[in-house]
Design goal:
This protein has a four-stranded mixed beta sheet with strand order 1-5-7-8. It has a four-stranded mixed beta sheet with strand order 4-3-2-6. The longest helix is centred in the C-terminal third of the chain and has 25 residues. A hairpin with a 5-residue loop joins strand 3 and strand 4. By secondary structure, it is α/β, with parallel strands linked by helices. Helix 5 crosses helix 8. It is globular. It has two domains: 90 residues, Ribosomal Protein L15, Chain: K, domain 2, CATH 3.100.10; 178 residues, CRISPR-associated endonuclease Cas1, C-terminal domain (Four Helix Bundle (Hemerythrin (Met), subunit A), Up-down Bundle), CATH 1.20.120. The protein contains eight helices and eight strands; from the N terminus they run ββββββαββααααααα. The two termini are 16 Å apart.
Length: 307
């Protein structure tokens, strides 16, 4: 029986997936309907792509057309990154932003009053307290920056790290200071799974509220809510041990802590909570609009099965 004649796969919901996997120096392909990575020696490693939220593709990775198509069908984000995740070159996700969600997000971002409400909610979720009243977005951004610098210092001191500032040089990565290298590796993991969740929910990564003008502005907004609770302490803890391969240790630790903290269960409801602070009704769904990136049709089969 041809793979195309089989019933469609029922996608696994984002919250039930493994957060992120990194792939380097291999050919990403499809064999007998399954995702495989073939290394230079011809060794095949199967990947349960339908159960992964995001695949990070490092230098030395080649991706076939069938592999991209399969990732699109099962709703897995493919992200092309630099070595150690210090740069993001491109990303692709099926479905893109849904028109109703995109219009809702854009209306909130374009209206100064509504945008301020959303920013205040993000501030409250991030710091556990209401933001100062009668402050503009720019003023809140300045207050946030000062608090962030102090938070870095406090967490670094907890783990015995000598901290100067958040800084790194991607052109001379291996000679950069260890804490910043660990932080960059950790935040790249967080940004990858956050972008996958943003796209799966039907929103646009570029339409931000605190961050603006960048392809991942909204991803940074959402990820920052969770960053200091999850990845910053993890990065400093690993930096304090001075491991031989810090980036690898950070990735493995991120994989575990994302699952333990149930991060993927929190992000999409968190996005809805942040945007709901604008106190406007989302537009009605259009009949002809593109469906969600990861649909959830009624079925008699379990997730991950054909039915």
């Amino acid at each position: 029986m041809s793979i195309n004649s089989l019933p469609p796969l029922k996608p696994i919901q984002i919250k039930e997936r493994l957060s992120v996997l990194y792939i380097e120096h291999g050919q990403l392909d499809v064999l007998d309907g399954a995702f495989v990575v073939v290394d230079q020696n011809g060794v095949r490693t199967h990947i349960p792509v339908g159960g992964v939220a995001c695949l990070m593709l490092e230098p030395g990775t080649r991706v076939s057309h069938p592999a991209c198509a399969l990732a699109a069908r099962v709703g897995t984000l493919l992200v092309w990154i630099g070595e150690a995740g210090v740069r993001l070159y491109s990303a692709g996700q099926p479905g893109g932003a849904r028109s109703d969600k995109l219009l809702y997000q854009a209306r909130l971002a374009l209206d100064d009053t509504l945008r301020l409400k959303v920013v205040r909610k993000m501030y409250a979720l991030r710091f556990g307290e209401e933001s100062p009243h009668r402050r503009s977005v720019e003023q809140l951004r300045g207050i946030e920056g000062a608090r962030v610098r102090e938070t870095y210092k406090r967490i670094a001191a907890k783990y015995g790290i000598e901290w100067v500032a958040r800084n790194y040089d991607t052109s001379d990565w291996d000679k950069g200071d260890l804490p910043n290298r660990c932080l960059s590796a950790a935040t790249s993991c967080l940004y990858g799974v956050t972008e996958a969740a943003v796209l799966a929910a039907g929103y646009a990564p570029a339409i931000g509220f605190i961050h603006t003008g960048k392809p991942l502005s909204f991803v940074y907004d959402v990820a920052d809510v969770y960053k200091f609770d999850i990845v910053v302490p993890l990065a400093f803890r690993i930096a304090a041990r001075c491991p031989a391969n810090p980036e690898q240790q950070v990735r493995l630790a991120c994989r575990d802590v994302f699952r333990e903290s149930k991060l993927l269960e929190k992000i999409i409801p968190g996005i809805e909570e942040m945007l709901a602070a604008g106190e406007i009704e989302p537009p009605e769904r259009f009949e002809e609009q593109v469906g969600p990136a990861i649909p959830n049709p009624e079925s008699i089969g379990d997730v991950g099965h054909r039915s």
